[in-house]
Design a protein that fits this description.
The chain contains 19 helices and 19 strands. By secondary structure, the protein is of the alpha/beta class. It has an 8-stranded parallel beta sheet. Strands 1-7-5-6-4-2-3 form a 7-stranded mixed beta sheet, covered by helices on one side. A two-stranded antiparallel sheet has the order 10-11.
């Protein structure tokens, strides 16, 4: 049991092993039985009245918690809810040989597990993965695959970044030009940071239909994963405004500006939506479609980051609207705009999530969740102000940064964030007050996809750093023997077919260099970035792009 990852709250080993036959019978409440069978699919478990595996409900254990007893007479699982039963099944799967992580195991595998007891519950409720499907679209199969890998690691929030300057990624039947126009671009930049722009001249695009989104939501829920859709507004709006230019802040007062197009380069555009009521109505309708398709959606991320507010300040109509609201400046209007969207979400049963610029602007609903990407300083200020926070700092949780400062690495935004950096991270630092720590819901790692063109690149960046975050978020910290347990866990990732970055460095086909784009080590250093970002969180113009 010492190879479990994430490490459980407590385990008591015993001598001996229990064999689990193919087609093992699982008995208990149907919902819990189904969860255990899904986690152990390689064994083709069968439901029955009495079997080797017995699962029962125990509400006293709490959400996502479980007790797993393996004795010579069988397996007993007590679970606080369906998620707890599913996670007990995942732990039992880890106690089996690594072949349990294949879709179909080969002949001659001995399905036996060590005897003992595991008592387990998560330290943090939010254990997340942020997947940017706007910069590079990830087909539905890649989303399903990410959910499957998350489930193995007891990660439970999939934050889908569905819109940015470089693309809109979901069907809208109310406003179809969003996906007809905003979901593709004719080419994509190939140049590195601060280099002259070059392009590949290869069209890129794609979007999820509402049926796809419904399927993704249902698939995730059965695996104890909640999808958190993000519609990032009012900035990052090039793709939206390419489709519906009437919502351009520059179009107010009868002006006819040069239209925006779906952005072909990385970085930030000055494109920003008008904050007028018709924009709120437009976005509310689109969000209703997304939430209606996903099903139960307790959280919706509305962005609020990296907004250039100049076009608001230059519009007499917007300035007059700001004055009508009794607001002093455009930063206050930015805060008002996000508060209005959060109010609309609350009426529909969803809680708003924002990046930390929205907190700095002020005026948030008290129940709005803040993701402080710019570091621990603004995170603590948000928690002290009474907001729940999900820790998302660039260091050490932006996995688009390279894992080594080396030209052998594939191209990355900067360097370096290592597995050890992630394992050492404390989402709720002891230096914070107890009340501040109580507001930390958890943490998630970010996969921004400017330099992640496909699933293989995502695998390389996400794992095994994601294994470290999974342990920190579930257990509270990387436990004793983490490095040795991770080494053993890599065999499970091999069986799953995850193309992770080996601890010793990239495999020959993962190298930068011939046929691949090399990393530029030392150009963007994460420690310098963090210092700059912290300074930005104290500036009056905090919403302006920080990079």
């Amino acid at each position: 049991m010492t190879d479990l990852l994430p490490f459980p709250s407590a385990f008591t080993p015993a001598s001996g092993f229990l064999g689990l036959p193919h087609g093992v019978v699982v008995s208990g409440p149907a919902e819990l039985v189904d969860a255990v069978r899904l986690a152990l699919a390689v064994l083709d478990p069968r439901p029955g009245e009495a079997g080797t595996i017995t699962v029962e409900s125990d509400a006293s254990l709490g959400a996502e918690a479980y007790v797993l007893d393996v004795t010579g007479g069988g397996v007993r699982i007590a679970a606080g809810d369906r998620a707890g039963a599913f996670y007990a099944g995942q732990t039992l799967r880890q106690l089996l040989p690594a072949a349990a992580f294949r879709a179909v195991a080969g002949a001659g595998v001995s399905w036996s597990v060590p005897l003992g007891q595991v008592r387990d519950a998560p330290r943090f409720a939010w254990r997340g993965v942020h997947l940017d499907v706007a910069r590079h679209f990830m087909p539905k199969r890649e989303v399903f695959r990410m959910v499957d890998i998350m489930a193995v690691h007891k990660l439970n929030r999939l934050h889908l970044h569905l819109v940015d300057d470089q693309g809109w990624r979901v069907e809208s039947r109310r406003h179809p030009r969003l996906h007809e126009v905003g979901a593709h671009r004719p080419r994509t930049t190939t140049s590195y940071y601060r280099e002259d722009l070059t392009f590949d001249d290869v069209p890129h695009g794609g979007y999820y239909t509402l049926e796809d989104l419904a399927e993704i939501g249902a698939y995730a829920r059965t695996r104890a994963v909640t999808v958190v859709p993000e519609i990032d507004v009012p900035g990052h709006a090039s793709a939206i405004l390419a489709a519906y230019p009437e919502f351009d802040a520059r179009a107010t007062g009868g002006r006819r500006p040069e239209p925006f197009t779906v952005l072909e380069r990385w970085g930030i555009s000055p494109a920003i939506l008008s904050p007028l009521p018709e924009t709120i109505d437009f976005l509310t309708g689109v969000i209703e479609e997304i939430v209606g398709a996903l099903g139960e959606t307790p959280y919706v991320h509305i962005g609020g980051d990296e907004c250039v507010l100049d076009d608001w300040a230059d519009s007499p109509e917007i300035v007059a609207f700001q004055a009508e609201l009794g607001l002093e400046g455009v930063s206050d209007l930015h805060a008002w705009f996000l508060r209005r969207l959060a109010d609309e979400l609350a009426e529909r049963g969803s809680r708003a999530v924002v990046w930390d610029e929205a907190f700095v602007s002020g005026m948030l609903r008290p129940d709005t969740i803040v993701m402080p990407w710019r570091g621990p300083g603004v995170a603590r200020r948000a928690a002290a102000a009474g907001h729940d926070v999900v820790q998302t700092p660039v260091f050490p949780l932006y996995f688009d940064y390279a894992e080594a400062s080396s030209e052998e690495e594939p191209v990355a935004i900067g360097d370096a964030i290592t597995v050890s950096d992630v394992a050492a991270y404390a989402p709720a630092p002891e230096s914070w007050t107890a009340e501040e720590r109580e507001h930390v819901l958890g943490a998630q790692f970010q996969l921004w996809s400017e330099r992640l063109p496909d699933g293989r690149a995502v695998d390389y960046r996400a794992w095994p750093r994601g294994c470290a975050l999974a342990e920190v978020a579930w257990s509270g910290s990387a436990g004793t023997g983490f490095d040795a347990r991770l080494e053993a866990h890599l065999g499970r990732l091999d069986a799953l077919g995850v193309e992770y970055r080996p601890p010793a460095g990239p495999r020959p086909w993962q190298l930068g260099g011939a046929g691949h784009r090399r990393h530029r080590p030392g150009v963007v250093k994460v420690d310098e970035v963090m210092k700059h970002l912290e300074e930005m969180t104290h500036e009056a113009d905090s919403t302006r792009p920080s990079m």
